[in-house]
Amino acid sequence: MGFILAAEVMKVSRLSRPVKGEPIKSRRVEISLPVRKESERDVKGGTVKTEIQAFKIGELYIIGLPGEPFVEIGLEIKRRMREIAPEAKGVITLGYCNDITIGYVPVARAYDEGGYEPSATNLAKGCAEILTEEALKLLRSIT
Fold first, then answer.
1. 98: number of Cβ within 10 Å
2. Mean pLDDT, range 50-57, rounded to an integer
3. CB 91 within 8 A of CB 57
4. Which burial class, exposed, middle or buried, applies to 61 when counting CB atoms under 10 A from its CB (0-12, 13-18, 19+)?
5. Model pTM greater than 0.70?
6. Residue in 41, 58, 59 with CA at minimum distance from that of residue 50
């Protein structure tokens, strides 16, 4: 099977032509988020360290967020990016990037409404807003 695949790759590669690439930029930042209760992770000073990554490929922006962020976080980042980079052809927000251990990242309203996600997370109310602001700072740095 491997030989068949390799033969096909060699055949197709002879047909390929170079293309002009898009400029690529990337950055990452480590941030601290406040916690409201002890967790399995190494918690020092009531915070947990995690990171955010940002990529720009041409006019496409990609932001990698830790944990399982509520959809409202991604929607807010996309909304505000229209003001920061109106030329952007798209903004993709991704969760579970390089850190799944922080779990759910609920928006403030979810803590007030209750439910499974805000009761299951160790993150304090306000972390979604911190994550959003830090993500936007990082995206601004690559515009």
1. 12
2. 97
3. no
4. buried
5. yes
6. 41
